[in-house]
Amino acid sequence: MTDLRQDDGGQPASAPLLPALQDRLTRYGRLRDRILLSPDWGRMLRWFAPLVVSLIAAVLRLVNLGHPHQLAFDETYYVKDAWSLWTLGYEGTWGENANEAFVTLQQLPLDTTGAFVVHPPLGKWLIALGMAIGGPDNSVGWRLATALLGTGMVLLVYLIARKLTGSIVVATVTGALLAIDGLAIVMSRIALLDTPLTFFILLGALFILHDRGQTIPALERRDGSSPDPMWGRVIWRRPWLIAAGIALGAASAVKWSGLYALAAFGLYIVVTDALARRRAGVVLWPADAAFRQGPVSFLLLVFPALAVYLISWTGWFVTAGGYDRQSDANPLVALWKYHQSILGFHVGLNRGHPYASPAWEWPFLLRPTAVWVGTDPAPCGVDRCIAVISSIPNPLIWYAGVAASVYLIYRLVRGLILRRPVGPELSYPLVGLAAAYVPWLLFPERTIFQFYTVAMLPFLVLSLALALREIAGRRDDPLHRRQSGERTVLIVLGFFVLVSAFYYPLWAGISVPYDFWLLHNWLPGWV
């Protein structure tokens, strides 16, 4: 056998073993880069990566979707309202034992008297579509729409990350983190409104990115369309902005908190328009963006959103029995009065709840919501078993995502202080986080829940993927730096997967030994 310490002539090599191995690793790295950068490999990854993460998400959300076969947590409101919309066109009043009637398909005690409900109807119409397929007693039908939209969320966050960074790897990591996270899984497996809300927010966010990709270069280009150096171009042709308005209007038609996203991304559009005009040399760039382009952008974004919101109330408009429908001869005035009542309810909602969690607690994950606890769980091999569904996210992903968002804030503030260019990969995830989180801090007395953070989660995992990219290193970094960084990221991702596997029984309602369940309660508020 040839001695590795000798050269081809059989004499001792002058170079030590370590540089030789380093040279082999360098050649391996170059070969890997040639493969990854080849056109055929890139084309395959462009469709294969999103397909894989979407399939993983679909399996985790659709398998055994009908369990438990009973209304869990606030499904008691939205499933019944959905069936009422499907049969009456508006939310009617339910009699006693309605929950049991849905499970056993007894005569459903639905009265045609309009019920006072505090959320717009679009999310419940989507739930109703699944119920129309499976019937009112089919628990898969109750949850089918949210499961499909929850799977769609994973694909959307992949596309957002891909558009934002241009990296298939970063996009795949972002999508995979959302696919395996417990909060996203649980909220996709029960018929609540927060998953449809988040889906439409992400859809609008993706359309905003496409609008930025077309509009920013046009604003920065001084091609003679606006010869006056004092003013820039006013652009009306922005189809992606109209699409974003439609999507964010749909989010607002699911829950009013979608309005926060509409406002946040609208402000983001004005600010980025202004900065593009400054880079183009427009003298009055702040006024140009706010008072010339701003009204146009408002029309293109807000009017489609308003139209979608009003269309979502079609069932209430075309029927006579909805709540407050007869309060005025003008249906728009009647709807306005109804909305005043809804606003009064939301402002005054401060009733105690065992799982209430004010927004300041959310980053610390102090009080996740127990969505369902099995009253008679299946045997698990020991005397004492328990089956629960908890909306707790993967703790490692959650805390790492919070830390990553703080890191992005630091990078953004530092860049602004030092007057360095700030890329959209720093600001954009923070806009989504601010829209989903900051408004709730303004209502410390209101009864709200930790699972509302599902609207934050996609932007948290996007922040985390961006931070992991910094750890992994960039292509122009020294090879040893990239190798150590990539190994670190792979180890971290491996821990994320293991923790998700450990927590999955608590996300799917699987019966487990009581002592095993206790191992998952890392903080007192998790019980």
- Give the CA-based shape: globular
**Low-confidence runs (pLDDT<50, min 5 residues)?**
1-15
Side by side, the strands of the main sheet go 1-2
Structural class: mainly alpha
Q: So what's the oligomer here? A: single chain
Q: In whole angstroms, how far apart are the ends?
A: 63 Å
Residue-averaged pLDDT = 89
Q: What percentage of residues falls in helices of 4 or more residues?
A: 55-70%
> Secondary-structure element sequence?
HHHEHEHHHHHHHHHHEEEHHHHEH
Our estimate of the beta-strand percent is: under 5%
* Major pleated sheet: 2 strands, antiparallel
Count of runs of 4 or more consecutive helical residues: 19
Radius of gyration: 27 Å
Total DSSP E strands:
6
For this entry, give a set of tags.
single chain; mainly alpha; two-stranded antiparallel ribbon; 19 helices; globular
General description of the model:
The protein has a domain at 194-312. The protein contains 19 helices and six strands. It has helices spanning 17-37, 39-62, 75-88, 98-104, 122-134, 139-165, 168-180, 182-188, 194-220, 239-252, 258-279, 285-311, 314-318, 331-347, 395-417, 424-441, 457-472, 479-508, 514-518, and strands spanning 92-94, 110-114, 370-373, 385-386, 388-390, 512-513. The chain has a two-stranded antiparallel ribbon with strand order 1-2. The radius of gyration is 27 Å and the shape is globular. The chain starts with 16 loop residues before the first helix and ends in a 9-residue tail after the last helix. Residues 1-15 have low confidence and may be disordered.
